[in-house]
Design a protein that fits this description.
By secondary structure, the chain is of the alpha+beta class. The protein is built from 5 helices and 6 strands. The chain has a 4-stranded antiparallel β-sheet, covered by helices on one side. Strands 1-2 form a two-stranded antiparallel sheet.
Length: about 180
């Protein structure tokens, strides 16, 4: 009877240990082993949603006076959004915005201040607050940028690692804050 109790206890503890170990993954980075824990997507949903919005804005609004860089960044951004972002891109292209950047040797950067994501209701609504710097040869224009939209779940891929798609993308505010002369 004692042997049966000890065997059952040992089996129980073994299964518990194996179950705990299946939730852990070890990654080798820069010669160091890092322990990573498996978690459900819902545990990291707000973080992934904010990073998806941040990545889209970085690609869509970071522009340099190089046609290939613009096309590469916009292509990466459009994998993360629907036709609402494509429509904005097409309008800007038709109005000569991108050719003006190239001919004027203008660079545009974006700094994200904050991203608010409401994950209570699906599709998830977001609002992004950012600052743009438009760097010309003679001046730097600082602008305030506020955008909004919704996030819909889609399949993850190499082009869309977070598995979200930005829909109903809209610019709420894009106003000048200051102009700084360059020396």
């Amino acid at each position: 009877m004692g042997c049966v109790v000890i065997c059952c206890f040992t089996l129980h503890k073994s299964f518990q240990t194996v179950a705990k170990m299946q939730d852990k993954v070890y990654i080798l980075a820069a010669g160091k082993a890092l322990e990573v824990y498996a978690s459900e997507r819902k545990d990291n949903l707000p973080v992934e949603a904010r990073d998806h919005v941040r990545t889209f804005h970085k690609f869509f609004f970071t522009l340099d006076p190089d046609d290939k860089v613009i096309k590469t960044n916009i292509t990466k951004a459009l994998y993360l959004a629907d036709e609402s972002a494509k429509r904005i891109y097409d309008d800007l292209k038709e109005n000569g915005f991108y050719s003006g950047i190239i001919s004027g040797n203008i660079s545009q950067t974006i700094q994200i201040d904050s991203i608010a994501v409401d994950i209570k209701d699906y599709p998830y609504r977001f609002k992004c607050f950012a600052r743009q710097n438009i760097i010309r040869t003679t001046s730097i224009l600082k602008r305030n940028l506020i955008t909004e939209g919704t996030l819909r779940n889609v399949s993850r891929s190499d082009n869309n690692p977070h598995g979200f798609l930005i829909e109903r993308f809209n610019t709420i505010e894009n106003t000048d804050l200051a102009v700084e002369n360059r020396k």
